[in-house]
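Complex 175.
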Amino acid sequence: MELNEVMQKRRSVRKYLDAQISQEEIKEIIHAAQLAPSWKNSQNGRYYVALSEEAIRTVYDALPDFNQRSTVNAAYIIAAFKEKTSGAIRDGEMSEEGDLWGGYDLGLQNAYLLLKASEMGYDTLIMGLRDTKALREYFSIPEDEIIMPVIAIGKRDGDVNLRPRKDLSEILKIR
Ligand SMILES: Cc1cc2nc3c(=O)[nH]c(=O)nc-3n(C[C@H](O)[C@H](O)[C@H](O)COP(=O)(O)O)c2cc1C
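Predicted structure with flavin mononucleotide bound:
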């Protein structure tokens, strides 16, 4: 599939069919995420995936009810990054933006992840609202990893329209 087609097809999906993604497919998607660039090639993104019934239930329970309702039948990917890694200059000194660079790198990786999933016929929903304490405990996520989104992954049930985008003139200045 052409990149442009994949980008056009990707959108946030909030209704999923009862069709589970396999471990092998998850690995292929995370492998694509690894191709993203990162600060000094630090590759500090980390992924925790809920595929079993118990793990899916645990992540589901860690979501606010509106995100629960949107992700029935989906599996979940939790994306985290190791703190004080991206953005590090030397001797533990961080650039002025600090761990924002870690979030930046993880966002790049996650964009690859979403597009690869889309190319493979899967749909996703990034969720910023979640109970990180419950997720950290269940997956034994180390304290030095900052938990960012939970990403639901599955197959869309029905059509979803692309949400409107701002006019280019609002976000772009060329001189
Ligand atoms: C960091 C981030 C957090 C988000 N959190 C949520 C969320 O908690 N629940 C939800 O339904 N959508 C969430 N979204 C999805 C956005 O609402 C969605 O990406 C946006 O409206 C554009 O629509 P599109 O993804 O279909 O292009 C989030 C997206 C991002 C990037």
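The chain has seven helices and six strands.
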